């Protein structure tokens, strides 16, 4: 066992990378749930984004086009959820689970010819003086642009929900859709836009895994990150900055257990691999006793005839 092989600077830098797909998916789902919709299809939208982004990136040679395709792919898959829950008024939980199963199957089919191919690399956003700073430089200023996009998106969603008129309307729809409808707001339209935003964010998170975190395509490579993102929204009490903290906690535990495996710690690999999920569940149990942040109309369908 050689713990000295673990570099703390690299550990923190890779923690941020591990947290980013989770953060992107969680922020998207947070907006969806704020609108009063529970979409359990995050995993399906992430894996679809992962293969759409990977395929387009390989075919065009541009990771940026790959990420745009991933956002579009995730949003298109979320349209299925829109049709089922907002048009046909199907059960949201069952529809979300169906979406995940469909996404996993579709991505496996689409990705058959991409196994073993390496995608084009995305450049790092090296900031001239800041990137060269000792310790702080590699941790904060030597990452890919999408990592910073995730943090900016968190700040933007927080601001919109807290201070803008659009955020107020979104929260009103999530709290009491009948009252929002009575005030003249288009409840279905607002929820559809929120669901599409959530799908696009999940798609971006999936592509981050296949293009940056693990630059390759393997079937089912999201490996439960979508489910953790769903749990994270609850852990964050539907607050964006807490989602950021939660994503970094999960990312940290993931990276630490990988480093411990590499250092040859005398703990069975299976236990180490389980640890991020166990710790996330434990934190959820401790913190989710307070349900005060949950939108009152979460999971309830809106009937336009009301």
From TrEMBL:
It is a multi-pass membrane protein. Pfam families: BPD_transp_2. It is found in: Cell membrane. Keywords: Cell membrane, Membrane, Transmembrane, Transmembrane helix. Its main location: membrane. The chain crosses the membrane at residues 6-25, 37-58, 64-84, 96-115, 135-161, 192-214, 220-238, 245-265, 271-289. PANTHER family: ABC TRANSPORTER PERMEASE PROTEIN, SUGAR ABC TRANSPORTER INTEGRAL MEMBRANE PROTEIN-RELATED. This is ABC transporter permease.
């Amino acid at each position: 066992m050689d713990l000295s092989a673990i570099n703390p600077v690299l550990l923190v830098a890779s923690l941020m990378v591990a947290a980013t797909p989770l953060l992107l998916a969680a922020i998207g789902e947070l907006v969806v749930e704020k609108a009063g919709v529970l979409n359990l299809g995050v995993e399906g939208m992430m894996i679809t984004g992962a293969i759409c982004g990977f395929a387009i990136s390989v075919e065009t040679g541009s990771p940026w086009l790959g990420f745009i395709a991933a956002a579009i792919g995730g949003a298109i898959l979320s349209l299925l959820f829109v049709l089922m829950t907002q048009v046909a008024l199907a059960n949201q939980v069952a529809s979300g689970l169906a979406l995940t199963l469909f996404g996993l199957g579709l991505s496996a089919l689409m990705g058959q010819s991409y196994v073993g191919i390496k995608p084009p690399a995305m450049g790092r956003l090296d900031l001239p003086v800041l990137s060269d700073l000792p310790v702080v430089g590699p941790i904060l200023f030597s990452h890919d642009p999408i990592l910073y996009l995730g943090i900016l998106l968190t700040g933007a969603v927080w601001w919109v929900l807290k201070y803008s008129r659009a955020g107020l309307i979104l929260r009103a729809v999530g709290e009491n859709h009948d009252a929002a409808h009575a005030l003249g707001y288009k409840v279905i339209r607002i929820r559809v836009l929120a669901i599409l935003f959530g799908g696009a964010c999940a798609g971006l998170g999936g592509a981050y895994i296949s293009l940056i975190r693990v630059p390759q395509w393997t079937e089912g490579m999201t490996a439960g990150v979508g489910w953790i993102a769903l749990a994270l929204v609850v852990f964050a009490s539907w607050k964006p900055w807490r989602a950021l903290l939660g994503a970094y906690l999960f990312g940290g535990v993931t990276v630490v257990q990988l480093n411990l495996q590499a250092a040859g710690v005398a703990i069975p690999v299976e236990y180490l691999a389980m640890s991020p999920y166990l710790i996330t569940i434990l934190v959820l149990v401790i913190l989710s006793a307070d349900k005060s942040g949950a939108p009152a109309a979460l999971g309830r369908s809106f009937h336009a005839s009301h």
